[in-house]
Amino acid sequence: MQKSKLIWGSVILGVLLIVTILYSQGIFNSLMSKEPNKDGTPVFKDIDKEDIDWEEIAAEVGANELGTVPILVYHLIGEQEGRWTRTPESFRNDLQELYDRDYVLVPMNDYLNGEIDIPQGKSPAIITFDDSTTGHFRLLEEDGELVVDPDSAVGILKEFGKKHPDFGHVATFYINGYPFSSEPDQRQYWKKKLQMLDEWGFEIGNHTFTHSNLGSLSPEEVQAEIATLKGHVREAIPDYEINSFAIVQDGVPDPYETIIKGEHNGVSYEHAGVVKWAWRDAFSPFHKDFDPYAIERIQVFDDDGTSSLTTWLDRIEYRRYISDGNNEMISFPEEWADYLGNDFDKDIYIYEKADLPRTPEKEEQALEAKGMHVTYYAASSQDRWNNYLNLVEETSMNTVQLDLKDESGYMGHTSTVELAQEIRASKNFLPVEELVADLQERGIYSIARIVVFRDPVLASQRPEYMVTRKDGAPLDNGVWVTPRSKDVWDYNIELAKEAYEMGFDEVQFDYIRFPEGNAAWEAEYGSEITGTRVEVITDFLAYARAELGWDKRLSAAVFGFISFAEDDLKIGQRAEKMGPYLDYMSPMVYPSHYGPGNYGFNNPNAHPYEVIEKSMIEFQELLELTGCELRPWLQAFTMGQPRYGRDEIRAQIEATENQGIDSWLLWHAGSTYHKEQIVP
């Protein structure tokens, strides 16, 4: 009898232990039924939330409900992958990618209402479709019955949601008149399709009746486009309320309010949200900068074999919205406290999180970084260093970019990187860690400059990495190492890791290119890493990002000419290819480096404002899909006529800031700068 009691006691303890483990993993809070809810959202089993320590759970899962949300936009679903088309296979892969990364589909309306009710540790994602083409929703006739094409977006979503009921299948279709009728035989079904979408929990949004760019229409015409579409939907679903609107081709009307609220022919509309065309992740509805009438989206497409979804999810990993599992509470780390919006009928829980990699405050500082290049020789003089600090205090500057490894291949500090020690590349005359600590104490943003493929020291000490002419002679006296060597990649990445360990806020790679000139185009680079020059440079950045992680800020200096070049200038730099792996790109847009005829000027050097303005516009267009921000290098030196002083330097700064870019760096090879040339 005593033995039987012991056995049953052990069984009970074992069951309790299993229950505790399951609970701690959030499994009890994410038990699902076999099918998603009618509205397409995941079904999670109801539990008694009264006795749960939600605050403890929030801290354990790293909840951040002020983090950003990926709102994805698709256009065509079709057979050929392209800039505007996603194949059914790729779309399935996208859903799997989201699912594997612990995202859950939520309705746009729930997002707008701040009702994101998902399990702890999960993140919301929203899928939208523009233009209502047939690939989004196709009906096929089989044995006298209409069935959903399994390769249409609706078919894929429903099937994936059935397989993964904890993911759901909800999406928002921003439609035009006679939706899903790009194939003539499908037009007869447009009303039935809208009814089926409503029945299955998908959402319907307004995208104008004729897919019109509203920027060119009168207020009356804008209201007619929107109201007519709403009336059209009600022909199929009389009581359906459209709550959100998607702007066509970034066509913004004047006044803007006409897309939010209006009336035409007795049909009135009022939208709770407006989504823009694309370009970045969206603010949490609880974030102070959330604007329901200017919601950003991310376009999903294939970029030469790389999914834009994958690169964007990597980019936002450190700032993603993570749920605490309790829809009645908003949880976030204390570093985000200043970014909470107002007037939420929810409890607020703020917790401490150690070693938060990228705080919003530091991100704002990076986004507004204005600074100067300082050589390690200049920084080694205490008097000059103090002058730089004073210059920051007396101007609008807030940033110092310090050479870690410069064009000589040497470093001013004693490096702990093994290869740097072996080739005697480091010099012990600069207390870098002390300087960086000084910058941090003063609230000054710090950037470590690492020159990558121009490295005379590495080339001389490891000739196997040196770039040579076809006849075997060193190219340019042996100052270049090959971008096609993984050892060279790893060496510079190890230096970058060291820079972060020393406390730098950011690392900037320079000379991240192949050498220029006729001889360089025919030079020998080895064959360890194959591919075109563009592929090699892009792959290096992708590899560096994977090694360093997205919890570090990374930038690169590039030629200014690549903004208008039709190719890569045979140096491997293409802004749109490099951008997905960078936080910031710093094009060297020095007016003195442009030739006669560039931007329509015989002497571009005499037109600093115009040169910077035009180049910034071009670079913004190249980078708009990537998430990479601009921080140009501006000319603070004289080369040719006219001499550069206050007027020329201020003209460049103003041209940058007038393009909405609040970040720039000044370059002078000798690190000589003057207050009167910088202050407004």
Automatic annotation (TrEMBL):
<dbReference type="Pfam" id="PF13200">
    <property type="entry name" value="DUF4015"/>
</dbReference>
<feature type="domain" description="NodB homology">
    <location>
        <begin position="125"/>
        <end position="241"/>
    </location>
</feature>
<dbReference type="GO" id="GO:0005975">
    <property type="term" value="P:carbohydrate metabolic process"/>
</dbReference>
<dbReference type="InterPro" id="IPR017853">
    <property type="entry name" value="GH"/>
</dbReference>
<feature type="domain" description="DUF4015">
    <location>
        <begin position="371"/>
        <end position="673"/>
    </location>
</feature>
<protein>
    <submittedName>
        <fullName>Glycoside hydrolase</fullName>
    </submittedName>
</protein>
<dbReference type="Pfam" id="PF01522">
    <property type="entry name" value="Polysacc_deac_1"/>
</dbReference>
<dbReference type="GO" id="GO:0016810">
    <property type="term" value="F:hydrolase activity, acting on carbon-nitrogen (but not peptide) bonds"/>
</dbReference>
<dbReference type="GO" id="GO:0005576">
    <property type="term" value="C:extracellular region"/>
</dbReference>
<dbReference type="InterPro" id="IPR011330">
    <property type="entry name" value="Glyco_hydro/deAcase_b/a-brl"/>
</dbReference>
<dbReference type="InterPro" id="IPR025275">
    <property type="entry name" value="DUF4015"/>
</dbReference>
<dbReference type="InterPro" id="IPR051398">
    <property type="entry name" value="Polysacch_Deacetylase"/>
</dbReference>
<dbReference type="InterPro" id="IPR002509">
    <property type="entry name" value="NODB_dom"/>
</dbReference>
<keyword id="KW-0378">Hydrolase</keyword>
<keyword id="KW-0732">Signal</keyword>
